[in-house]
Amino acid sequence: MYRIAIIPGDGTGPEVAVEALKTLEAAAAASGFKYEAVHLDLGGDRYLRTGETLPEGALDELRSYDAIWLGAIGHPDVEPGILEKGILLRIRFELDQYINLRPVKLYPNVETPLKDKGPEDIDFIVVRENTEGLYSGMGGVQYGGTPSEVSTQVHMTTYRGAERAVRFAFEVARNRNREKQLHMVGKTNVLTYVQGTWWRAFNEVGDADYPDIRREYAHVDAASMWFIKNPEWFDVVVTDNIFGDIITDIGAIIQGGMGIAAGGNINPEGVSMFEPIGGSAPKYQGKNVINPLAGINAMQMLIDHLGEADAAERVDNAVVKALESGRIKSMSAGAMGMSTSEVGDFVASLV
Ligand code: IPM
Ligand code: MN
């Protein structure tokens, strides 16, 4: 019996949660596993009501589940940064979800903005370090609001953090068993201190334990071009937190956009959290037009992470069949030719 926490969150998150849960229910029934889904009220509405981002005890409660599914965090009436730092980043950090795993896979019949590229060209995985770098929160402001204002935001990097991220990425490359190739994406020509730490970890771990995996390197600016011009060059990519944030939005758009892109915040030794990469899309809230496929794909990753490989494969096949049918006209909200709930029912019926 798995215990799964569901954080519907803000905006369209709750509508997407309903559809992702339909898929979970169908997958559990088909593969014969049992679960309990517990809804947690966290997000902008709660913050506006109570002034709390994560209430007392919430982190300990989250640590008690087998996995977490999160819809979206972000509310138009809340100043930027409060919910992101107070909820999403706090969970990632406190649960030590040190990997952000973001598959970039173009499904059949999904439109990519890249000319002459198809599903055979766009199929790679980005392993984003998820607890350090520019996201560490270190730094501050001195003489704020005056002409002398000084601010710093520290690009905090530890060898241990880089080492565990590259090791995870080497494992992904080995287990994917495709090109057996791992790209480090960085900026070793300018950020010589922090990237030096990454470079050392990348090569030491590779030399010691992964002689079967070919190592490649690209600067982040060049990689941003190549994701667009030659996405087929990539198999697995490992990178730091801020570069990973940016390049995975490029990854998301070439795989069809925020309607379909999902990721996982992974603590291989602890509790992991799966989420659509897109935000809360408040302008579509309550209209039954948002694409639930990203949330369904996040649920697919969650099921796989639980070790239910058969169920995970069923969900992936159901998404592929739904797309192959041609009935879902677009990945964009309002242009799918079906409502949010119709897409959810359709996918669940194919599991
Ligand atoms: C993401 C998001 C978050 C991030 C924001 C909402 C804090 O952009 O998951 O990529 O920057 O990591
Ligand atoms: Mn992002």
What's this model, at a glance?
The protein is of the alpha/beta class. Helices cover about 40% and strands about 20% of the residues.
What does this structure look like?
The protein is an alpha/beta fold. Helices cover about 40% and strands about 20% of the residues. The strands form two sheets. A ten-stranded mixed beta sheet has the order 2-1-3-12-11-4-5-10-8-9, with helices on both faces. Strands 6-7 form a two-stranded antiparallel ribbon. Helix 1 (about 15-30) packs parallel to helix 11 (about 340-350), helix 5 crosses helix 6 (about 190-210) and helix 10 packs across helix 11 (about 340-350). The longest helix is centred in the first third of the chain and has 19 residues, at about 15-30. It starts with a strand and ends with a helix. The model has no long low-confidence stretch (mean pLDDT about 95). Bound molecules: 3-isopropylmalic acid and manganese (II) ion. Manganese (II) ion binds near residues 245 and 249.
SSE layout and pairing:
Layout: E1 2-9, H1 13-31, E2 35-39, H2 44-50, H3 58-63, E3 67-72, H4 82-94, E4 99-105, E5 123-129, E6 139-142, E7 150-153, H5 159-176, E8 181-186, H6 192-209, E9 214-219, H7 220-229, E10 236-239, H8 241-254, E11 262-266, E12 273-276, H9 293-305, H10 309-324, H11 340-350
Parallel strand pairs: 1-2, 1-3, 3-12, 5-10, 8-9, 8-10
Antiparallel strand pairs: 4-5, 4-11, 6-7, 11-12
Helix pairs in contact: 1-9, 1-10, 1-11, 5-6, 7-8, 9-10, 10-11
The protein binds 3-isopropylmalic acid and manganese (II) ion.
